[in-house]
Structures are given as structure tokens and as C-alpha cells.
Amino acid sequence: MKASHTSLLLGIAQVWAAPAPQASVDPVFGPPGASGDLRPSPDLQGYVPSIHIPTSPSTEIPTDEFELAPGQSEDRDLGLFIDLSKVKNPQPVQDSKNTPTDPGPRTEAYDRLNSDLFIPPGTDHGDVGNAKWPFGLSHNRHGLAGAGWARNQNQDQLPIATAMAGVDMRLSPNAYRELHWHKSAEWALMLNGSARISAVNEDGQNFIDDITVGDVWFFPAGIPHSIQAFESGCEFLLVFDDGNFSEENTFLLTELIQRTPKSVVAKNFRTSIDTFKKAPTDQLWIFPGTPAPTDIEKQNQTGPAGLIPKQGTYSFHWSEQQPYRVPGGTIKILDPETFPIASGFSAALITVEPGAMREMHWHTTSDEWVTFPSPSPLPLFLTLPPQTYFLQGQARLTVYQAPGSSRTFDFSAGDVGYVPVPNAHYLENTGNETLVFLEVLQASSITTGMVGTLSFGLGLRDASLVILFFTLISTVPVAYMCTWGPRTGMRQLIQARFVYGKYFVSLFILLNLATLTGFSIVDSIIGGQALSAVSDGTTINATVGIVIIALLSLLVSFCGFKILHLYEKYAWVPALIAIIIATGCGGQNLHNQSIVEPATVQQVLSFGGLVASFMLPWAALASDFSTYMHPQAPPFRIALYTYAGLALPTVLLMVLGAAIGGATPNIPSWQQGYETNAASGVLAAMLHPAGGFGRFVTVVLGFSMVGNLSATMYSITLNFQMLLPWLFRIQRIIFSIVITAIVIGVAIKAASSFFTNLENFLGLIGYWAAAFIGVVVTDHVWFCGRNFGAYTEDEALWDDGSRLPMGWAAMGASIGCLGLVVPCMYQIWFTGPIAERTGDLGFEVALVLSAGFQQNILLHTLEPFFETFLWLYSIMKFSFTAILTILAAVTSALPVDEGVSPRNELFGRANDYPYSGKCNGNGGIDPWNYYRCQCTSFVAYRLNKAGVKFTNQYKGHHWGNANTWDEAAKASGVKVNNTPKVGSVAQTNAGKFGHVAIVTKVGKEKVTIEEYNWAHKEKYGKRTVPKSTFKYIHVKH
């Protein structure tokens, strides 16, 4: 048996070593025993007339053997997405079934996955380099003993990807990626599982951290690092800043030791050669490991140089960031502003809902590397367990490349896309589930040339129309409520006590305080960023600028209403001039607007709600300033002046802002200014061509915020005093200081994300303001019958909680409307089910529903019985009263600040007659051609102080003694009747020469007047008498 075995081996060896069997082979007919022609006859080349072309059936596929997908028969220029995934035998048919089919052979699965290459839209044109590579076609390199694998994408697979390359790597449970480094920087996102990363920098400092799903790390070129998976294993995505990067060219610790003489290695580490005799003879790359300690401190071996400081560490726990929500999806951005070590790398993790799209855009400073990771449990929002979420979906992307070329590609999970700078592109979700993808740029920030305005994606025309109409509508209630101040002498939220009661109104005072404080923060940020933009943030940064603006505003607010009014009277002039100059300097670029799709209902209503939210809150403080006007001032003129003063500048400046916003992404210097200092940075960039003068104008624009901020601070101090009765005794200067400190602190923090915070802030305040307006206006018109006597007849009623309404009906109307307002809200942090389809309808619903509820007779009928039957209200009232009593006692020693008391400075309820006590006999003639210290002189004084240019020769007629004023008034065309109004002249023929007085309050049956020289000679007096005592002369401006 042994001999036979040996002979067999020798035979095989001889056969293998012998030359191949040789035989004759005919050059035409081949070797003997074969059939057919191995090579054709040379006679078949060229013209062969004898060749007969046989008749064959058509190569077109019959229409009953294939199906058209939805949209495939439509005009190809529409560019509809064609889903071939479920149709039978898909064909490249466009417009109709008469176009050519593909009988094959072909890879049908590829055609289904790449429908936009198989059936391109009519807009595709010219030649564009391939922008897609699926990781599924990359070689999968496996580690040792099943420890993991990696797939590489670089310029070999995707030639246009010159600046970046990617690696998809998997580590099995407890496996290691051995200590290594690269000549390229490494940016990584953990897709699933968790791992422990460690590194050492050039100074010998250590770094170690635990990374989980959604977290990021970054290792600069040359930094040695290692990765170990935890027991669940992990998968992560690596992006390198070199398109030629290859995982095969990594510097490995094992290879360093292998390729260095053992004696040198031993000498380097100051140990014996024996230590390295068992060193690996080949690279480990990815290899199995033992479980890492759960407690990171047990593995954190700090070297002599210590740990890397936190600001220089290599990890960022991105998973903790909540995404920014926009219509159609979410976005999370990470760039060197928040992750400084990753210089030159910016990333955006984006989700797009079915039917939505990542808008048309391009990048001005970097190529875009984009990936659609394979489905994996990546909990982007951290609101549900990790296994609930999967990165999946499908999309298409059209790359536009000048001049006139474009190509559309289809993507699904596991694909990589690459768009060179500055090619324009979009991403459309073409599937039925949420699309998730990652954008990576080699840029210091996400610099995107967005199509549309900066926030809502509206074109200039659409944005301007929304601004115009929503401003014109939402300013109406503000202008109307402003007319109440002169007639009542009360601040707006003091008037609201007659609806909400003395205690419930505090809720709306708090909301108004939050609103005013928010606007103060916005003004401080804009002004501070303007000052910062002038010096490029070197001499004065945004923080210093905010402090300067806030302190100057505090100083102006200290001066009181008269100085504030004087300042506001002229401060708008330099601001307007500065804006005109800025528009002139940058106007030549404003035409460079991006082209957008027609506005959707959602966009219009959501942006309109934001515009309305800017205007409606004025209603809560309209009377705060108009209370200084004369009670008889024509309401229509007050409303008209208020309406024009608010609406005109708002529309003009908002439209200008929309134009600037639409052009900003297309002008690099403006975009850079926007990223650095938001709106102020853009204005500074617009003025940059003007040199030093432009910087001066920017400073003027920055300081123009002082007017807004100081006036707002004035109202804030009044609101503080209205909040609780005992706060009357605290001087308003204290509140000014407190609110300034709050504004500075919050503004410095909020400035880092100005437009995000502004949008969030404005989006909320419109809801409460609309509900407040609906209730207060309805109560005034419906229940009070527009009679201001209901507020003023009893001088003490405004501050008497026991006689004011309890406010249950008003609170019920305000809170009751929330049931429908919430589903209609469209905010970044919450979108109601109705708003998902319609856009933001919150403020409209709040306004209408609160007004409707306030008209509910049942609520008002039952309100008087609440105090009797609701023990809860009694306890609340008792507790609240007790607290106020204690606080009032504590502050009783302080002087009272009458800032919120009902007042009318130009029509004061006090003896301010300049000749009081200075008359002896007739006292001489006053400036109005009357004898001083007479009732006629006193009334003439009051009328002139109220703005009526009244004299004894008013309107060309001699008015004479008081007993002839009624006839003189009729002759002059001035109305005389028996209906008193505040500010009208009360006239009687009683006495030798008659008597005139001024009406200060009108009740149901009686009237209160101010007079001189009636009950006591040459003395001021005040009395309440029946209305029938006088005739009433209505002298107007």
C-alpha cells in the first residue's frame, strides 16, 4: 500500500512537470474533434453583397408586457419622480408608451434603484460627473477573527470626490481598532452602539471618553488614537479631509514595531529585547479584545503630562442636542463655533419628512460630502428608546453645474453623494418614510446660499405681501385701544382690571413683562452686534456692545416721560437717514434675489403669524403713552396717528429686511457678516464700501436701538408697579436697574443664536396678545357699550378689588380658547395636528375664540355667584389679601410712586391755574383776552393747555361773558347740546354773568366739573352735579 501511494505521487509529479500535450490546430476549424468556426473568415470584412438580412420580429417590447409607473406618462419636463420599485418589467419610457423600450440584457435591479438615470427628467442636460457611490459596491475588508470590518470610499470609487473620503467601519463586541494615526484629519459619527475612544496629543497629554449613538469625535492629522467597542458592538462613519485617503495607508502601532529593529525599539522604551519577542508579526488593524471596564476612571491612566483640557478634547456629545425643527423636517449643525478642535469641518444631520425636500442651495466655500447611512438604531431626537428609530429613506438629488449642465441621481440607505463647490443642488424625499442624511463640509461653518429669505423660504414678493397685509390687519386693534388712554386716564393693563379683575390681571401683566423684556433683549443684541461689527469684534465685541446699549437706554429711561418723549421725537431722524444710506450703499445688490417655488399656505400663515406677533403686543401698552393726551382729543386722529406710526415704518423696514435676507446668501461679504453679527453684520457689510463713513453710520444704527429700548424700559417699570399694589411704593428707578441687569445677562447668551431665539420668542407672544385683545375689546364694545364712564365714574373703583369684576368670565374666555389654539400652533418645538396641514393659525384662532367666549352671557351671568359658592376663590382671595397687607406694611415707610394711577397730565385734576391767588380785583387781562381769576379765564387756560387755540375771539366771534358762550358757540359752528363729554365746556346762564367750567368725568346721571370763581371768590373748585345743570359746548382741536 505504501509503495502504491509512492508511485501515485511520482506519477502526478511527472504529469505536472511534463510539457502540455501537443497537437495540430487548423487556424480556421480549430483542433481535431471540434466543430464550428473558432475565428471568422477574413472574407466577411466590409462589403459582402451576398449577405441576406433575415426578417425578424420587432425588438420593441409589447405594451402588455410592461407597466408604467405613476407619473411616467406625464411631460418629462415636469421632472416628476418615477418610482419603478413595484412595476412589472420597468422600461425607460417617457411621455407615452411610444418611446423606445429596453429589451435587454440589463441589470433590472440597478434600473429600479436609479430611476432618474434610467428615465431622466427633461431638465437634465449636458455632462456632470458621477455624484453617487454606494458603500455596497466597496470592498469589505475584514479584521482578525471576525472582530469587525471596514468599507472605503475615496477618489478611486468616486473621482469627483477630491477633497473628502469616507469609511464605514464596524467593530464586534469588545473589539479594538488598534492604536493608529493618519496623515489626514478624521471626523466621525457613531451610527449605532457605543465605544471608548482614547488618544494622546503631541504634548503627551491623554484623552479618553465614552461615545454613544449620535456622538462625534475628531482627531487631527498625526494624533494617535484607538477605539474599543463595548459589549453591544458599534458602527461608525469616518470622514477624512483627503479624497485619496485609503484605510490601507493607515499608520499602525504594530507595523511601526515590526518595521523597526527590535534593539532600537527596546532601547527606545528602555527595556530588554525579550519584551518584544512576542510582538505581533503582522498588523492587527481590527482585533478581538477583552471587555473594557464599565467605570471609565478605572481605565483612565493619566501620564506625566496630565489630561487634555476640556476645550481641546476630541469628542462632542452631539446626541444631547435637540434638533432645530422647521416645516418638513429637522436639522442639527455642528461646526468649529461649538466644536473648536474640529477646525475646517462642519456637519449637518438632517431629516426630511415624506413629500418634503432640502431646499435648493449651494455652498460657497466647500465641497459637500453627503451620506445616507444604512438603517441603524440612531436615536436622533432622544425621545424614544434607540430601537424605535432607523436611519432610512430614499431621495433624489439634481446637481446643477455651470454652464447649463445638470444630472439627477437617486440615493438610498448606504449611499454616498458628493457635490463640488459651488454646484447647486437639492434633496427631495421620494419615499414614504423619514429621510435622514449627513452633510459634511470642509468649512468653518455651514455657509449655504439658500434660495429664499433666511428663515421661511419665501421670495421677496411673497414675503413683502405677507408683511403688508398681516401688518395692516394686526395694527387695527392696537390703534383702536390707543384711543382709550385719553378718555380714561388709565394705563392699558389698569383698564384690563375692569375685565379680568384686580388679581387675575396679574397673569397678563407677567406675560406683558416677559414680552417687553424679550423685545429689550432683541434691541440690545441688535445694537450691541452693530457696535461689534464696526470693529470686527476686536475692540468692541458683541458682549461689550450689548452692555453699552443697555446702560445708555437705562440712563434715558431715568429721565422720565417728558425727556423720553423729547428724545423719541427726534431720535428716529438719524436712524432713518442711516438706513437710507445703508440701502443706498448696498442697493445695487438687492436685485440679486434667489428664485424660489411659489409660497405655500403653511409658509404664508406661519410667517404671517410671526409678523402679527410683532404688532399685537403693542395693544397691552397702547394707553401707557396716550393717557398723556387730552381727553377730548379726536379718537379718529389718535387712532390714525397710531396706526400710521406703527404700520408705515414696520412695513417699509420689514420689506427692506426681506430684500436683504433674500440677497444675503448670494453675496459672500453679507453672508459672512450675517454669520458673525446677524442682521447688524449684514448692515455693516452693506456699508463697508463707504469706509470710515460707513462705520460711522453703522454706529448710528447701533445707537438707534437706545430709543426703542429706553421706551420699553419705561413701560416695564409701570408694569412692575401694576403687578402688585405694594409695588407702588418702590420707585421705578429700582425696576429699571433690575431689568437692565436681566436684559444684559440674557442678551449676551441669546446673541449666539440670535435669529433662532428671535423666531422662537416672536412665535409665542402673538398667542397671548391675541387672546387678551379679543377679551378686552369685546368687553368694552359688547358689555360697556363703548361708554368710558364705566371706567371713570367712580374714581376709586380702579383699585378696589372687592368692587371690580372677579374676572372668571374673562379668564374662562382666555384659557378656553387654548383648546383649539394649541392644535393650530406651528413652532419649532411643537407643531399641532391642524397646523401641520395649514401652517400657524394660533393667533387668529386665539383672537376669534376669546372674543366669542367673552360674549357668552352665561359666563357673565354666573360670575357674581362664584364668590359665594366657590370656597377656593375665597381662600385664594384671603391668602392674597393677607400677603399684600403684610407687604404693604413692610413698605409703608416708602414714598408712593403714582406712576400707574389714573391720570391725564394735560388735563390734570388739580389746581394748576397760573393766576390762582394772584388776582386783586380784576387782576388784569390774560393772554386770551379775559379778566384773570374769572371762570372764563380758567376755562380758556385749560382749553389752550389741551391744544385748543381758544381766545375771546374764537373762530371770528366775540364770546364775551359766560352767559353768552352758548350763543357764541352756535354762531361759530361749535356744537352745543345736553350730552356731556370729558373735556367739554359746561355752561350755564345762572348768576349775573353766567358760569363756565370744564367736564372731567361723566357718569350715568351726574357729571364732575372743575371750575374757578364759583362757590368761593377767586378760588379753584371741583364738584359733581346732575347732568341737567349745564349745557355742554364741545370745543375741539
Write the layout of secondary structure elements.
Elements: H1 2-17, H2 108-113, H3 115-118, E1 132-134, E2 140-142, E3 148-153, E4 165-171, E5 176-181, E6 186-200, E7 206-211, E8 216-219, E9 225-240, E10 251-252, H4 253-258, H5 262-268, E11 286-287, E12 315-316, E13 324-326, E14 329-334, E15 346-352, E16 357-361, E17 368-372, E18 394-401, E19 405-412, E20 415-419, E21 424-429, E22 435-441, H6 460-474, H7 476-482, H8 484-488, H9 492-495, H10 497-534, H11 542-558, H12 560-586, H13 601-615, H14 622-626, H15 635-663, H16 668-687, H17 692-703, H18 705-723, H19 732-750, H20 754-783, H21 789-792, H22 808-816, H23 818-821, H24 835-838, H25 842-854, H26 857-869, H27 871-890, H28 935-945, H29 965-971, E23 976-977, E24 985-988, E25 995-1002, E26 1006-1012, E27 1020-1026, E28 1031-1033
Helix pairs in contact: 6-13, 6-15, 7-15, 10-11, 10-16, 10-17, 10-18, 10-19, 10-20, 10-22, 11-18, 11-19, 12-16, 12-17, 12-18, 13-20, 16-17, 18-19, 20-25, 22-25
Task: Explain how this protein is built.
Belongs to the purine-cytosine permease (2.A.39) family. One of its GO terms (biological process) is oxalate metabolic process. GO terms for molecular function: metal ion binding; transmembrane transporter activity. The protein has 1037 residues and is an alpha+beta fold. The chain has five domains: 65-115, no CATH class; 138-318, Sandwich (Jelly Rolls); 320-441, Jelly Rolls; 464-600 and 615-752, Orthogonal Bundle (Hydantoin permease); 908-1033, endopeptidase fold (from Nostoc punctiforme) (Alpha-Beta Complex). The protein is 37% helix and 16% strand. It is built from 29 helices and 28 strands. β2 (140-142) and β3 form a beta hairpin. α13 packs across α20. The termini are far apart. The model is unreliable at 1-18, 375-390, 445-454, 865-898 and 904-909 (pLDDT under 50).
